[in-house]
């Protein structure tokens, strides 16, 4: 990291912390990572989070700089693990924002619980469901407050029969745990259908690859990166 980049990093973190300090402490924590040199850094009213762009290793001058800055400002400094979902978006040059929240596994609907925790309209919060389409894995992305029509999904992807995958199969194929399955960065590329309702919004939220983490992206990013087919796939639509 050059001296000029280090100064930019320091100033950016200081400004972001000052702005974050003006936000109510009760506001949902927002991790909006900005690219600074080899790092992506996020600031809140009480912490600095950062992670590497490439392999997630901690170390070097930038690590020491952030630790010293955190100590001087009296805020926590933490190194975040790098979800495969965000790595895929970074590699494709797709803009996104990360939203963290307290995941509640006991919620009747984890999707609606996420929307409530983040203060987001459920119409913009989308869930990722893994299905078996004619015996092969496929993916459906739809609003958390809507139910999937397996018949419409099969038709949208050019298949005959669709059924939800068992939890163990969904986790094995995607590499994510249920409750944290993201459409991005999966182990195996599969056919994807995105519900047409996504086109009504400039940005939608979907899982970021771990429980308690949501990605905010443009619907077009899902189409471009995953080759998703846009179609009405919800029951009653």
Strand order of the largest sheet: 9-7-8-10-13
Low-confidence stretches: 18-33, 52-59
- Largest β-sheet summary: 5 strands, mixed
N-to-C terminal Cα separation, in Å? 52 Å
- CATH-defined topology of the largest domain: YbaK protein
- The secondary structure category is alpha+beta
Q: Please report the first level of CATH classification, the CATH class of the largest domain.
A: Alpha Beta
Q: From the coordinates shown, what is the CATH architecture of the largest domain?
A: Alpha-Beta Complex
- The average pLDDT is 78
The radius of gyration is: 19 Å
Number of strands: 13
Query: What is the molecular shape?
Result: globular
The CATH homologous superfamily of the largest domain:
YbaK/aminoacyl-tRNA synthetase-associated domain
Give keywords.
237 residues; alpha+beta; 2 domains; 7 helices; 13 strands
What does it look like?
This protein has helices spanning 3-21, 61-73, 84-92, 110-118, 150-156, 167-174, 219-226, and strands spanning 30-31, 34-36, 39-43, 47-52, 76-79, 97-100, 126-133, 136-143, 162-164, 192-195, 204-207, 213-217, 229-231. By secondary structure, it is an alpha+beta fold. The chain has 2 domains: 3-82; 98-231, YbaK protein. Strands 9-7-8-10-13 form a 5-stranded mixed sheet. Strands 1-6-12-11 form a 4-stranded antiparallel sheet. The protein has a 4-stranded mixed sheet with strand order 2-3-4-5, covered by helices on one side. It starts with a helix and ends in a 6-residue tail after the last strand.
